[in-house]
Amino acid sequence: MSDLAGTFQHEAVAEAYRHRPPYPDEVFDRLEALITDEPRTVLDIGAGEGALARPLAPTVERVDAIDISPAMVDAGRNQPGGDHPNLRWQVSGIETAELDGPYALVTAGASIHWMPWQQTFARIVPHLTPNAQLVIIEHGPVDMPWWDGVAATIKRHSRNQSYNPAYSVADAIQERGLLEPTGTVRTTPITFEQRVADYIEQFHSTSSLARDLMSGEEAAEFDTAIEQAVTPYAKDGVLELQVVAQLSWGRPLAP
Ligand SMILES: C[S@@+](CC[C@H](N)C(=O)[O-])C[C@H]1O[C@@H](n2cnc3c(N)ncnc32)[C@H](O)[C@@H]1O
């Protein structure tokens, strides 16, 4: 595991994670429509605290939610829907997870870039139904008028100075011959209102801005700079965010 992937083991990161914006409902409609085989069983890889797995569980036969971080899985068990009978948590790297397919859908929300692709695909592919799809999902707020100020602050404090916003993990996986692409979609924006304090806190759920990577002084400096950048745009301490998700899916191939 890379050092940055390891930050998801920190309890403070798992705690801050609940402040990330929710996935739009359209994501779940799209995922359900991609399940065409029986049993309607889903494998969620790098499930984290279950932002995908928890809402999906009641609508399918079962979700196996696999994550390498005990802190993230503990957080997920305690979130709404975390104890649904259709949801089976497993703390494990996907490379060595115990799989109980066949799975009609594999979901990877903001997670597959952390995984060793050859091993991951070799592990998953034998456990799929004939028409199973792997869906790579990224989501977040767009078109933020305060973004320049926030981006400059992130740049100053991020532990990942090689971050490239133009990089597409789905394209990279296809180029390696591990995914036969079938479709992509960008969801319609939804409005999500968030308190400034929670907007600031969600940055500390990212691997490169975790509180444990900063001194208390640096974290306070980061928080103040973000607050100053966004406050002119807040109404009564609340920001209005437009959240979209990008889904890319296809047939996973064995290496
Ligand atoms: C950014 S979080 C995404 C969580 C969730 N899928 C979501 O959409 O909110 C990435 C997760 O991938 C997990 N992860 C990283 N490497 C992994 C691996 N090799 N096997 C399983 N989980 C892994 C991390 O522990 C972390 O919880």
UniProtKB/TrEMBL annotation:
Lineage of the native species? Bacteria, Bacillati, Actinomycetota, Actinomycetes, Propionibacteriales
The UniProt entry, under InterPro entries, shows: Diverse_substrate_MTase, Methyltransf_25, SAM-dependent_MTases_sf
Q: Which GO terms describe its biological process?
A: methylation
Q: Which PANTHER family match?
A: METHYLTRANSF_11 DOMAIN-CONTAINING PROTEIN, METHYLTRANSFERASE TYPE 11 DOMAIN-CONTAINING PROTEIN
Molecular function via GO = methyltransferase activity
Q: Which UniProt keywords apply?
A: Methyltransferase, Transferase
Specify the Methyltransferase domain's residue ranges: 42-131
Report the domain of life of the source organism: Bacteria
- Name this protein carries in UniProt: Class I SAM-dependent methyltransferase
